[in-house]
UniProtKB/TrEMBL annotation:
Entry keyword set: Metal-binding, Zinc, Zinc-finger
Ranges for domain BED-type: 4-62
GO MF entry, a single one: zinc ion binding
Metal-binding recorded as keyword: yes
Native source organism of the sequence: Cirrhinus mrigala
Protein name: BED-type domain-containing protein
Length: 152
């Protein structure tokens, strides 16, 4: 069952049950059809029309609330499938994000006096995978050869 966004109109109406085909106006107690006889066909058009016809100030409040809701949600657009799938792609090793994460791991090793082998530990790998699934953990050899300057 899909969760739907609740319309602002429901602050002006009540239901005894979600399956009721009519809603009761909280102001004048009129019974207003929900536009269908079964839950899948219900809508709020009649409720909004009732407010507009019988409770002009409430309808204006409803309209303002709805407008504010639209503005606060911004211009949200559902991402395209290619963009969504791209979020699963691993970072290239030379990407800014991957380089930053590798640098932070090196700082962890150096500042906390950790062994280089920590990057091979299953628990550490799982932690990093959980925090950033797109990051490819470099080998300890890569870290020694490319990132940490060892004193001789």
């Amino acid at each position: 069952q899909r969760k739907r966004a609740m319309s602002a109109v429901w602050q002006y109406f009540s239901l005894k049950s979600e399956k009721d085909s009519v809603a009761q106006c909280n102001t004048c107690h009129a019974q207003v059809s929900r536009g269908g006889t079964e839950p899948g066909k219900f809508n709020t058009s009649n409720l909004i029309a009732h407010l507009k016809q019988h409770h002009k100030t409430l309808h204006e409040d409803f309209r303002k609330t709805t407008e504010l809701k639209k503005q606060s949600s911004g211009n949200f657009k559902q991402p395209t499938l290619p963009k969504t799938l791209a979020k699963r792609d691993k970072f290239p090793r030379d990407s800014k994000k991957a380089l930053t994460l590798t640098e932070k791991i090196c700082q962890f090793i150096v500042l906390d006096d950790q062994p280089l082998s920590v990057v091979s530990n299953i628990g550490f790998k799982r932690l990093i995978e959980h925090l950033e699934p797109r990051y490819v953990m470099p080998s300890r050899h890569y870290i020694v050869d490319k990132t940490i300057e060892l004193e001789e």
